[in-house]
Specification:
The protein has one domain (about 20-190): Recombination protein O, C-terminal domain (de novo design (two linked rop proteins), Up-down Bundle), CATH 1.20.1440. It contains eight helices and five strands. It has helices spanning about 20-25, 30-45, 50-65, 70-85, 135-145, 150-155, 160-175, 180-190; strands at about 1-5, 10-15, 110, 115-120, 130-135. It has a three-stranded antiparallel sheet. Strands 1-2 form a two-stranded antiparallel ribbon. The longest helix is centred in the C-terminal third of the chain and has 19 residues, at about 160-175. The structure holds zinc ion. Zinc ion binds near residues 99, 101, 119 and 122. Zinc ion binds next to loops.
Length: about 190
């Protein structure tokens, strides 16, 4: 790729396509998720600032989307968590964000977006905007935050848990990126 330095914006003169991502282009759901991935990466990138971790995350997300035939919604939730990690907002899942007690019993917990993680049963009222989180959803989120593509394909979740995970990761990312993200609304639409 050749970039010419312009007065205000740089001008791209020539590009070479290394990976055409043909399977993404052939599938409307994959296009929608792909656009959401690009949109989110764009939201967290700073102009003229190098961010190799973000670049690696973007490329691996597009490659995963190209290759995955199942669990795309889970993959997208994992991508959102990893994007938050790269941006310094990975939620805390191992202890309560209010009292710091270890979360041994995973029942009756809440997910506080403002607190950036889980509230134990005793601290549930510390954030009145916190959402209930089930034990199953929490366990899958913990796994997704560090799961590779191969592992994500093997994760099995009920429709109910998947819905909960998608809702929580989507809202969490919206909370931290501060604005309603257009392409995420399309993702919500295709999920029905
Ligand atoms: Zn607590």
């Amino acid at each position: 790729m050749f970039i010419h330095k312009g007065r205000n914006l740089d001008i791209v003169n020539q590009v070479e396509i290394i990976s055409p991502f043909l399977k993404i282009k052939a599938d409307l759901d994959k296009i929608t998720y792909g656009l959401a991935v690009l949109d989110l990466v764009d939201k967290v990138s700073q102009e003229s600032e190098k961010n190799p971790n973000l670049f690696v995350l973007l490329i691996s997300a597009l490659e995963a989307l190209e290759q995955l035939d199942k669990n795309i919604e889970l993959f997208y939730a994992a991508f959102q968590l990893k994007l938050m990690a790269v941006s310094g907002y990975l939620p805390r899942f191992s202890d309560c964000v209010n009292c710091r007690d270890k979360l041994d019993d995973l029942e009756n917990l809440k997910f506080s977006f403002e607190g950036g993680g889980i509230l134990c049963f005793n601290c549930g009222t510390a954030d009145s905007f916190a959402y209930n989180i089930s034990k199953d959803a929490l366990c899958v989120l913990v796994e997704l935050a560090r799961a590779s593509r191969d592992k994500i394909v093997k994760i099995q979740v009920s429709d109910e848990t998947l819905k909960e995970i998608s809702f929580l990761t989507g809202r969490y990312i919206n909370y931290h990126l501060g604005s309603r993200i257009k392409s995420m609304e399309y993702v919500e639409k295709i999920k029905g």
